[in-house]
Write a structure and sequence with these properties.
The chain is an alpha/beta fold. The chain has helices at residues 13-17, 19-27, 41-49, 66-83, 93-105, 131-147, 160-166, 214-227, 249-257, 270-275, 291-299, 329-341, 343-360, 363-375; strands at residues 2-6, 31-36, 53-56, 87-91, 110-115, 153-156, 176-178, 201-205, 232-236, 262-265, 279-282, 302-306, 321-324. It is 42% helix and 16% strand. Helix 4 packs across helix 5 (93-105) and helix 12 packs across helix 13 (343-360). It is globular and about 65 Å long.
Length: 378
């Protein structure tokens, strides 16, 4: 079958998040067309080596310009029609809307929308939801009500997202399927026995945005260092200078100079850094089903995360880590100190994480389920 995967970005959308699914579909004999708006020579080569055919298309990733969006949808439909697809799988917030509409216009027989999280407008801030976000929720609800009317299935990664989306839209809930984690190639994140030495090392992985909880992580680190000054706090990830909610370059430089954090930046050897750390921390405000937490658990690390959609699905509180209230750096710091003072729990909870990952995150078990959902009766 001819299957299109319509992403908004090649990296990480296709080359990291969908890499294993592309390989699996190709091995199963499907012809895969991988759509992205930002291909470069490197990402195009990676996708080609996976056995898929890279295809460029246009989509305004952020902002609302209905006329440009409709034009892009029409142009995308022409490309889909030319390929003569059997199935269109569109994922991320905007591609799932306009990719599904384009597939309908192109008369693609089967159309699947996948939401790996509800995105910015459903993510709270410390002032709860702004008027702007509430207006955007209704606008988004109208768009998905129209678009997903033409979807055969709408896939989610957690149980909160379909409930929250339904509050602002009119979609047939019989189309909803919660698939849970997309999964990992576990051999790429091998279990590494945690060696509890002093100082204890905590690690944060992600873009340094308020919504990812970077400021709570830093505030908790400051509290912990008052009592245990040698504790190490590692950050892996990029600055996002164009995002107003991001940690600034000057702020980061100050944090490094005072010795609060060890900033590593964006790296290709994430597994090695996780293996060198003791506890993984993700204080995010909302997720689909966070890949970084899955990676940490696969390697065998205890987790501290927040009681929000996507994050709370990864931790059994007190078993493989702790779930803390959103925006509460003091309780987060308490949990960090608990691990410092009870290092045996780093080992036992890390082993529980590993056990959970083996049962629930194996991409070799998950990909056949996704294939059955997207192929359906075709």
């Amino acid at each position: 079958m001819n299957i299109s995967l319509i992403s908004q970005n090649a990296i990480p959308g296709l080359t990291i998040f969908r890499k294993d699914l592309i390989s699996y579909l190709v091995k199963k004999g499907h012809k895969v067309f991988a759509f992205a708006i930002d291909y470069n020579a490197e990402s195009r080569e990676i996708v080609s080596e996976l056995g898929a055919i890279p295809v460029d298309y246009s989509l305004n990733k952020s902002g609302i310009n209905i006329f440009k969006d409709l034009k892009d949808t029409w142009l995308l439909s022409k490309k889909l029609r030319k390929i003569q697809l059997d199935i269109a799988l569109s994922f991320f917030v905007k591609p799932s809307i306009y990719g599904t509409l384009a597939a309908k216009i192109a008369k693609v027989p089967r159309r699947i929308a996948m939401l790996e999280g509800l995105g910015y407008i459903y993510t709270p801030s410390k002032n709860n939801f702004t008027l702007k976000k509430n207006i955007l929720k209704y606008a988004h609800g109208l768009l998905v009500s129209v678009s997903y009317a033409f979807a055969n299935k709408v896939l989610f990664l957690n149980h909160d997202d379909p409930v929250d989306l339904a509050k602002n839209s009119f979609i047939n809930s019989k189309k909803f399927n919660v698939i849970g984690p997309i999964g990992l190639k576990l051999s790429s994140y091998p279990y590494t026995e945690v060696v509890v030495t002093k100082p204890v090392r905590f690690i944060f992985i992600g873009r340094m945005l308020a919504e990812k909880g970077i400021f709570e992580y830093l505030a908790a680190a400051r509290i912990v260092k008052l009592k245990y000054p040698n504790t190490e706090f590692v950050i892996l990830g990029d600055l996002d200078n164009d995002n107003p909610s991001a940690l600034s370059k000057d702020q980061l430089a100050h944090l490094i100079s005072e010795g609060l954090v060890n900033y590593v930046g964006n790296v290709s050897n994430v597994a090695e850094w996780l293996a060198k750390s003791h506890v993984f921390v993700l204080p995010s405000y909302r997720e689909g089903f966070p890949r970084s937490t899955q990676e940490a658990m696969a390697i065998g690390r205890a987790v501290i995360t927040t009681n929000v959609p996507g994050c709370r699905e990864t931790v059994h509180d007190g078993k493989n880590g702790f779930i803390t209230p959103l925006f509460d750096e003091e309780i987060m710091a308490e949990k960090m100190i608990y691990f410092i003072e009870n290092p045996e729990q780093i080992v036992s909870m890390g082993n529980e994480s590993y056990s959970n990952a083996q049962k629930n995150f194996d991409v070799n078990k998950i990909n056949p389920i996704i294939e059955r959902l997207i192929v359906g009766g075709l």
